[in-house]
Amino acid sequence: MMQFFAFISEYWMLASAWLAFFFLLILSESSRGGKGLSPQETTNMVNSKDAVVIDIRKDDDFRKGHIPNAINIPATAIKSRLTELEKYKTKPIIVVCQTGTTANSAGAELRKAGFSEVYRMKGGLLEWQSSRMPLVKS
Question: What's the CA gap between 65 and 80, in Å, rounded?
Fold first, then answer.
């Protein structure tokens, strides 16, 4: 551990550049799939801007419980089912997964397909449940 601190003090410019690069990489990756929303912000956006919630979990997980009025398109099928979402291109899209980690890549796919207002729910459905928000089972 002492060697690590000695290296940082000796090469502080290199360490600073690496830290800045790492921070920018994390920032870039997290914003790639859209701005993150809390469950409360998600609810507000659905109510005020008629946002569409896309649940990218597997069909079985979706049936066990999902956000009311969410559309289920598993992450593996996003590219092949983009035509189903064409009618929502002018509306805000909120991508939801189980934990909030896979929503980034699905959001990036939607942005690449021309959807301009794409968001992702931070913490995914687990955060939704811990906020005691309603679930629908089908």
Answer: 24
Rounded CA separation 23/45 (Å): 29
In terms of Cα–Cα distance, which of 70, 74, 63 is closest to 39? Answer: 70
pLDDT of residue 54: 97
Q: Name the pTM for this structure.
A: 0.78
CATH superfamily ID and name for 33-130:
Rhodanese-like domain (3.40.250.10)
**Banded model confidence at residue 35, pLDDT cuts 50, 70, 90:** confident
User: 119 vs 9, 10, 14, 95, CA distance in Å?
Assistant: 41, 42, 35, 6
The rounded distance, in Å, linking the Cα atoms of 45 and 94 is 9
Domain segments of the chain as ranges: 1-32, 33-130
Banded model confidence at residue 57, pLDDT cuts 50, 70, 90: very high
